[in-house]
Task: inverse folding
C-alpha cells in the first residue's frame, strides 16, 4: 500500500511517497507524476523519506518518465531514500539515470541548478 | 375427511361422483314414494305400508350423498378460482330455479284440476322443490367451505370440522327425534350459530379479486341470494298447503338441519356480498401493490434473464414510473467504465439539462449530483423554474457497494404529486436495482477473473517451456539451475549456450511485470540470447545489441534486468556484463569467502538512445577449481519471513560459504531449503530462480 501526497513549495512540486510501491500501487505513483507533469511544473521533487520498498514495476514508472522529463526540460530529483531502496535503484542502474540526492535542501539546490 | 380419503383410495373420483349422484337419486325417489305413501295412509287413516321414519332417513341419505357429491365435484377441484366457485353456486341455483319454474308452468297449465289440488301431487311438487333447494344449499355450502378455508390455519380447520360434525349431529337428531332437554338443544343451536358466524367472518379471498372479478362476484352473489329467497318462498308456500291438509306431513321448517344450513349459506352469502361491495373502491390499491411486487421481481430477475445492465435500468425506469404514475422520469447512470448514460421517459434531454442547471444555479446541494445518497423531494425548488411543465420532482440515489452510481428522477406535472408510500416503493426499487447491478458487475468481474486465470495458465506453460531442459556442462564446471514460480507468472529466465569448444555463454534475466506480457518479453529475451550469443560478442556488446533490439519491443515502463556471462575454459576466465540484475555472488576457494561482485550496469530497455553502451561495463574474473558462482533473481533476496524481514544478501552469502565444498546441486539444495525455512512456508509470493556454477 502506498500513500501519495503532493504539495507545492516555491515553484516546485513535491511528491511525497509513503509506504510500499508494488505492481498495483505503482499506478498511483504513475498518476501523481503524470498530474504534476501535466500541470506544467518545471521542478518536481520526489520525497522518498517514507518509502519502504519499491518493486520493479515502481522503478518502471520512474524509468518511463525519463525521456519525457528530458524533452520537456523538467528537473526531476528524488531525495531522502533509505539505503535499501537506494540499493534497488542502483542495482538496476537507475541511479545513473535519475537525479538522487540525500535530502531536500540538496535536491532543491540541484533542481534549481538544472532548471537554469 | 378419513372416510372420503378411504373412498378415494377405493374408487376413482369420477366413480365416486357417479356413485354419490346415483345414491342421491335413489334415496330421493324412495323419499318421494315413502312420503307420499305416508301421506296417503294418513289421509285414508290407514296404517302406512312403510315405516314412518323412512322419509326422514331417506332425506338424510339424500343430504349425505349430495354432500359427498359436491365434496368431490367442487372441493377437490384445484382448478377453480374464486369467481368459478361463485359461478358454480350461481349455476346450480339457476338450474334449480329453471326446473322449479318449469314445474310451476306445468301446474299453471293444468289449472285448478283435481290433480293440481290433490295433496299427494302437491307433496310431489314440494319434494321436487325441496330436493332442488337442498341441492343448491349443499353446493353453496361446499363452495363457502373452500372460500372460508382459503389461507387456512390449524384453528380454522378445526373449527370447520367441529361445525360440520355439529351439522351432522343436527341432521341425525332431526331424523331420530331423540328427546333432548331443551337446554342441550339450545346450547347446540347457539354453538352452531356462533361457529357459523365466526366462520363467516373469513373473507380473505375477497382481497385477491381484481376490480372486474369483484363486479362479477357481486352479480353472482346477488342472483344466488335471489334464488335462495325464491326457493325459501316456494318451499314454504307448498309445505303450508300440505300441512293444512295432512297432519302426518313433516314440514320443511321442522327440520332443524335445513334451517341451520339455510341460515349459514345465507349469512355467508350476504356477508360476502357486503364485503365485496365495500372492497370495490380499494381493489385498485391491491392491484397496484400486486403490480409493484411483480415489478420488484422483474428487477431482481433481470440479472438471470437478460444479459445487460441496460435492461435493469429500463425496468427500473418503467416500474418506477408505473408505480407512482409519474408523468416523466430520467435516470442518470455512471456505467461500469465510468461513462455517463442517460435514460429518459417522456422527457427530452434538453429539459433534464434545464432542470439540472436550474438546481445547480440555486445551489441545491446533494440533489441530482451523484454524491448525494439520500432520497430528496425537490418539488419546492421547481416552482421557481418557469420554463418547465413539471411541478413535482423526486430524486433517488442508486447505490452499488455504498457508492452512488446514479440518480433516478421522477417528475409530475401536479404540485405535491408524490406521497410517502410512493417514495418508499420507488426507493425499494432503486435499492433492488442497485443490488441487481452490483450482482451483474460482480458476475462480470468473475468472468474476467476466470478469463485472466486461464490466460495466466497459458502464460505459465509458455514460461515453463522457455526454460531450458538441459544445461551445458563442461569438464571445468558443473551447473545446476532451479526455478519456482508463484501463482502469478513472473518473468525469470536463465539459459546456457555453447559458443565454441572453450566458450560457453550463460544468461540470467528478470523481466519486469507479471502475467502474459512478462512471458512474452521473456520469449523475446530468449530469442535475442540464442541469436546473439552464438556470434560470440563480448558481454558489453551483447548488452548493447540486446538493448537495441529490445527498446522497441518493450512497452513504456517495462524493462529487463540481465547478466550475461561467457566462460572461457582456455583462459580460465569469466567475462560478464551486468545490466541491472542482482550482483553475482562469487565464492573464491583461495580466500574461502563469498562476495558479491561490485560493478555497474543499467537494465535493458531503460535507456533508449545509442549511448546505452556507456551504461554497461565489461567485467571479468579468473576462476580456479573449487570456486562457486551463484546467479539469482531478486525473488530470492527479497523473500520475506513472517516478521517482514528480507532474506537478503548476507544470508545468501552465508549459505554459500558454509556449503561451498559441496557439489553445485547440493549447494543449490541448501540455498533453497534455507530459503524455505526462512520464509516459513512453501508458498512463495515471487519467483525464485537461481543458477549455481561450480568450477572444478
Result:
Amino acid at each position: 500500500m502506498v500513500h501519495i501526497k503532493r504539495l507545492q513549495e516555491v515553484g516546485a512540486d513535491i511528491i511525497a511517497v509513503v509506504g510500499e510501491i508494488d505492481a498495483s500501487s505503482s499506478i498511483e505513483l504513475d498518476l501523481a507524476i503524470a498530474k504534476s507533469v501535466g500541470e506544467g511544473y518545471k521542478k518536481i521533487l520526489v520525497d522518498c523519506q517514507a518509502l519502504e520498498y519499491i518493486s520493479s514495476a515502481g522503478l518502471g514508472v520512474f524509468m518511463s518518465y525519463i525521456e519525457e522529463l528530458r524533452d520537456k526540460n523538467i528537473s526531476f530529483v528524488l531525495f531522502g531514500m533509505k539505503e535499501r531502496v537506494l540499493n534497488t535503484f542502483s542495482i538496476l542502474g537507475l541511479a545513473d539515470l535519475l537525479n538522487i540526492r540525500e535530502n531536500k535542501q540538496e535536491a532543491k539546490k540541484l533542481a534549481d541548478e538544472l532548471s537554469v | 375427511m378419513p372416510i372420503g380419503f378411504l373412498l378415494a383410495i377405493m374408487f376413482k373420483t369420477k366413480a365416486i361422483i357417479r356413485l354419490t349422484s346415483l345414491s342421491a337419486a335413489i334415496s330421493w325417489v324412495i323419499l318421494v314414494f315413502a312420503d307420499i305413501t305416508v301421506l296417503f295412509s294418513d289421509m285414508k287413516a290407514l296404517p302406512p305400508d312403510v315405516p314412518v321414519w323412512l322419509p326422514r332417513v331417506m332425506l338424510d341419505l339424500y343430504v349425505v350423498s349430495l354432500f359427498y357429491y359436491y365434496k368431490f365435484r367442487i372441493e377437490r377441484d384445484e382448478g377453480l378460482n374464486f369467481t368459478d366457485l361463485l359461478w358454480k353456486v350461481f349455476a346450480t341455483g339457476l338450474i334449480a330455479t329453471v326446473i322449479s319454474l318449469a314445474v310451476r308452468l306445468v301446474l299453471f297449465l293444468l289449472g285448478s284440476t283435481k290433480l293440481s289440488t290433490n295433496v299427494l301431487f302437491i307433496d310431489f311438487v314440494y319434494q321436487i322443490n325441496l330436493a332442488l333447494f337442498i341441492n343448491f344449499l349443499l353446493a353453496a355450502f361446499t363452495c363457502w367451505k373452500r372460500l372460508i378455508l382459503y389461507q387456512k390455519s390449524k384453528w380454522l380447520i378445526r373449527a370447520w370440522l367441529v361445525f360440520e360434525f355439529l351439522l351432522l349431529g343436527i341432521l341425525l337428531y332431526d331424523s331420530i327425534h331423540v328427546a333432548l332437554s331443551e337446554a342441550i338443544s339450545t346450547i347446540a343451536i347457539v354453538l352452531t350459530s356462533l361457529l357459523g358466524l365466526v366462520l363467516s367472518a373469513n373473507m380473505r379471498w375477497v382481497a385477491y379479486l381484481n376490480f372486474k372479478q369483484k363486479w362479477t362476484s357481486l352479480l353472482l352473489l346477488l342472483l344466488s341470494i335471489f334464488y335462495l329467497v325464491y326457493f325459501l318462498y316456494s318451499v314454504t308456500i307448498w309445505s303450508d298447503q300440505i300441512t293444512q291438509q295432512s297432519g302426518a306431513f313433516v314440514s320443511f321448517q321442522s327440520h332443524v338441519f335445513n334451517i341451520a344450513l339455510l341460515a349459514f349459506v345465507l349469512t355467508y352469502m350476504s356477508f360476502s356480498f357486503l364485503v365485496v361491495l365495500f372492497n370495490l373502491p380499494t381493489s385498485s390499491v391491491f392491484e397496484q401493490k400486486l403490480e409493484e411486487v411483480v415489478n420488484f421481481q422483474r428487477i431482481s430477475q433481470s440479472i438471470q434473464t437478460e444479459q445487460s445492465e441496460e435492461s435493469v435500468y429500463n425496468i427500473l425506469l418503467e416500474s418506477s414510473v408505473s408505480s407512482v404514475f409519474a408523468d416523466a422520469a430520467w435516470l442518470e447512470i455512471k456505467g461500469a467504465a465510468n461513462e455517463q448514460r442517460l435514460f429518459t421517459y417522456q422527457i427530452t434531454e434538453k429539459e433534464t439539462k434545464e432542470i439540472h442547471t436550474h438546481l445547480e444555479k440555486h445551489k441545491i446541494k446533494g440533489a441530482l449530483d451523484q454524491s448525494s445518497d439520500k432520497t430528496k423531494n425537490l418539488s419546492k425548488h421547481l416552482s421557481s423554474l418557469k420554463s418547465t411543465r413539471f411541478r413535482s420532482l423526486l430524486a433517488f440515489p442508486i447505490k452499488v457497494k455504498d457508492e452512488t452510481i446514479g440518480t433516478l428522477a421522477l417528475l409530475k406535472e401536479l404540485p405535491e404529486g408524490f406521497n410517502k408510500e410512493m417514495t418508499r416503493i420507488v426507493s425499494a426499487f432503486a435499492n433492488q436495482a442497485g443490488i441487481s447491478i452490483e450482482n451483474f458487475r460482480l458476475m462480470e468481474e468473475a468472468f474476467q477473473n476466470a478469463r485472466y486465470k486461464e490466460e495466466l495458465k497459458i502464460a505459465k506453460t509458455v514460461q515453463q517451456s522457455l526454460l531450458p531442459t538441459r544445461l551445458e556442462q563442461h569438464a571445468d564446471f558443473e551447473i545446476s539451475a532451479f526455478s519456482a514460480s508463484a501463482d502469478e507468472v513472473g518473468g525469470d529466465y536463465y539459459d546456457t549456450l555453447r559458443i565454441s569448444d572453450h566458450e560457453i555463454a550463460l544468461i540470467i534475466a528478470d523481466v519486469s511485470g507479471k502475467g502474459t506480457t512478462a512471458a512474452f518479453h521473456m520469449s523475446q529475451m530468449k530469442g535475442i540470447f540464442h541469436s546473439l550469443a552464438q556470434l560470440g560478442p563480448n558481454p558489453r556488446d551483447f548488452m548493447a545489441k540486446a538493448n537495441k533490439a529490445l527498446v522497441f519491443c518493450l512497452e513504456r515502463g517495462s524493462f529487463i534486468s540481465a547478466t550475461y556471462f561467457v566462460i572461457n575454459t582456455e583462459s580460465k576466465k569469466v567475462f560478464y556484463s551486468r545490466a541491472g540484475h542482482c550482483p553475482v555472488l562469487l565464492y573464491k576457494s583461495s580466500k574461502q569467502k563469498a562476495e558479491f561482485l561490485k560493478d555497474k550496469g543499467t537494465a535493458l530497455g531503460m535507456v533508449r538512445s545509442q549511448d546505452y553502451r556507456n551504461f554497461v561495463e565489461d567485467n571479468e574474473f579468473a576462476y580456479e577449481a573449487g570456486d562457486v558462482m551463484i546467479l539469482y533473481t531478486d525473488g530470492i533476496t527479497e523473500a520475506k519471513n513472517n516478521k517482514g524481514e528480507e532474506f537478503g544478501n548476507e544470508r545468501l552469502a552465508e549459505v554459500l560459504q558454509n556449503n561451498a565444498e559441496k557439489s553445485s546441486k547440493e549447494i543449490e539444495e541448501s540455498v533453497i531449503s534455507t530459503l524455505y525455512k526462512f520464509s516459513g512456508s512453501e508458498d512463495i509470493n515471487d519467483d525464485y530462480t537461481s543458477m549455481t556454477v561450480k568450477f572444478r
User: Anything to note?
Assistant: The mean pLDDT of chain B is 84. The CA atoms of residues 273 and 449 of chain B lie 62 Å apart. The radius of gyration of chain B is 49 Å.
